[in-house]
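note to self: dont lose this again. the chain is below, predicted strucutre after it. 695 aa total, dont forget to put it in the shared folder this time
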Amino acid sequence: MLLATVNSSIVLISLPAIFRGIGLDPLAPGNFSYLLWMIMGFLLISAVLVVTLGRLGDMFGRVKIYSLGFVVFAFSSVALALVPFSGGGGALWLIGWRVVQGVGGAMLFANSTAILTDAFPAHQRGMALGTNQVSAIAGSFLGLVLGGVLAEWDWRAVFWVSVPIAVVGAIWSYRSLHELGERLAGKIDWWGNVTFAIGLGVLLAGIVYGINPYGGHPTGWTNPWVLTAVIGGVVVLAAFCVLETKIAQPMFHIELFKGRLFALGSLAGLMTSIGRGGLQFMLIIWLQGIWLPLHGYNFEQTPLWAGIYLLPLTVGFLVAGPVSGVLSDRFGVRAFATVGLLLVAVSMVALMLIPVDFPYWLFAAVLVLNGIGSGLFTAPNTSAVMGAVPANQRGAASGMRATFFNSGSALSIGIFFTFMIVGLAGTLPGALSSGLRAQGVPGAVADQVAGLPPVGSLFAAFLGFNPIQELLAPSGVLAHLPAANVATLTGTEFFPRLISGPFQHGLFAAFLAALVLTLIGALASALQGKGATVELEIPVSAPAPGPDAMPVPTPTNLVAAHSADEPASNGHRNGDASPDRGSMKDRLLGVLLADPARALHAVGDLDSSKGELAQLRESIEQQREQLAGAARRLREAGLTGAQIARLAGGSNRELADLLGEGTNGSAPNLAAVEPCPTGAQWADPHAAERSTSPN
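---
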């Protein structure tokens, strides 16, 4: 997971070096699309494919799809590092292979959470998922530092670094991971896959292109193609939701959203992902465009140092994530998830209030608070969402959760850059024009530069270019100005001080939007319910979603049900006279009549647990064989049957049954030995864990 998310952000900070390496100016007219798709290709394809690949994991094995993701990642990373072209051809090569790399990342995203949910019992799941999610979120910030360091050395190293990790990951995965989840046989839902991919892909592309200027407007939201993409994408996604309710074996069971825990947990995750992605971009631009240049850093150095100065945010994640996972396993998920988002909201308010040229200790303290809040939220929310779905749907549910995570990151680019551009458009042109005139730039040139869309200045700062130098270069005016004026215009302080006021307006709008999204997520977390469903310690399919879900069989019930299938000594089946069996039938019938969809989920869930019950019985039989072998070795060592039975804490009859010998009248009577009832003990799945005796 760390590998996938590091690669989602490592390119962001390395874009200047990458474009210099292939000889292409990303800010030149006509090259803006290359820049957008270098940023968006990986995120978009990951968001589109994770549900499909999660469903394939349910069908063909989650570990198999997960392990294949490492192979795809390694192969595409080699292709990216060996780009054979330059200019536009090189950019297209990189974009295409970044898309392929996104497929590998989607394989990891889609199935890692489901694999952990299968492997860990409910009382440890928060810890496991917390570690996994902290790796995901920390990776997105660590990629900024790693990209900055490697880009300073060689831009190809940004891609080479993934190769050894992916190769080792593939070998480790194939050797060490085992399928624990039950496969869900069925056909691939081609219609569902196609409509979901088209709808989400077109929607995200339209939103991202909404930041591209159009027709004299600073943004592209008046562009008919952008509006068509956004509206059309929403319509196709709505058609997908309707289609999935009509197909016998859908790609994703829309009914899962009827469960409060899954629906509200997913909503909280989406809101948080959008807010977190927007926060990352705004903080990078803040540091690279204003704060770092004001403190003496050249624009070329700002990408690396922006990643370093954002490390307190990652520290907060790393500290709070596993801790909240462990504590939420004991005390429930709702309080931790809700309090975590409220802390994030407080940090958003603080970021709105601190000055643009802040003291770093204050900025770092706010980042730590934000990281702690996000860490407190992430693990409990993921545990709640994944614990609310049946076991045979965990791959698709994990994919949908990852879709919200990746879609949120992609949506945040369009949403927050739009807020920032709108905030700058009202005040930046006037400030820029007057500032350029004061340094001797002719009025016509100053007005022309001031009239350019603010997105150019934003992306120049984001990429580590000097915005004023980039804006004035086409006019050639820098060659005719006095050297002192040129030094001022292209220095580290002119643009940051010029943009500080307008930039603060844009930051306020962006952080306000992030605050609203975070509060919506906190409200959704608070309304989830008292806690996640309690499951068996040995992973068994989760109950159907909803507060009144069918109860999952407990170990005692499983044994009772197994015993009910055995003939009773009086010639009747035990279950026939059992009031519990009758009441179970009554409950099933009542649920079936009240809510057929939920009842069918419950029945399917019970059916999916048969394989795990068979594994449990097989484990019991293995334990019996081990005990029988130990008894035979003791007998060969000269111990009598009575002595062996006394050591085992049972009776002679039980020992004979264990050895498959039957009893005879000459067997010694061991009534004095305290018997141990074996029916429940042999079937207790935890007996082996509690026992300290080798017998």
